[in-house]
Amino acid sequence: MPVVYLLHGAGGDHKAWLGKAPNIEAYADLYNVIIVCPDGHKTSWYFDSPIESNMQYETYISKELITGGVDSNYNTIADKNHRAITGYSMGGHGALYLAFRHHDVWGVAASVSGGLDIRGFPLQWEIAKRLGVYADSPETWEQNTVINMTHLLDGENLKFMFDCGVDDFFYDANVRLHKKLLERRIPHDYIERPGGAHTNQYWANSITYQMVFFNDFFNSTKK
């Protein structure tokens, strides 16, 4: 079966998605997929922290969880064409961060209300604990913000979308990434909705469309 990985936001845990979008359980049956909701620590930002040896969440999610956990213990189709990743807020950053850096692992990805440019928030959500204080480590922040990772994309090896409401405090970063991708002619799907703020209601609505997006991708790769 295909697998969809759902990453939670800051302050959340592995139970967060069920609380915000209870319908995901029904989506697993509807689309015949396995849904995995990993615990990414409350504020890991899904980095391999250069300063905290016990905060290696890029390695955990993209390698250890998949090969040592999910694919070893469940009836998965263990290749990128049957593996998706998305998340909300911090998890939206994490999903595109991991997919951009590991498009050998995920064939399709998405983000909803994602923090796609962390540089505007140097004092929030403990990002500085993971990467170092921005003033002391600006290069590390520049290298680890999603909006600066478009050079990793060739337009062919990853299908992805991202979605943000116009009233969300991450809206500006999402628009800037969209424009950057257009300039570089990198295919992607982008959605913005009027009135959408950083809310459970918005995320529950978005995951409905993202599951269709993932299902279409999985069906397109069937032999």
UniProtKB/TrEMBL annotation:
<dbReference type="InterPro" id="IPR000801">
    <property type="entry name" value="Esterase-like"/>
</dbReference>
<dbReference type="Pfam" id="PF00756">
    <property type="entry name" value="Esterase"/>
</dbReference>
<dbReference type="InterPro" id="IPR050583">
    <property type="entry name" value="Mycobacterial_A85_antigen"/>
</dbReference>
<dbReference type="InterPro" id="IPR029058">
    <property type="entry name" value="AB_hydrolase_fold"/>
</dbReference>
<protein>
    <submittedName>
        <fullName>Putative esterase</fullName>
    </submittedName>
</protein>
<dbReference type="GO" id="GO:0016747">
    <property type="term" value="F:acyltransferase activity, transferring groups other than amino-acyl groups"/>
</dbReference>
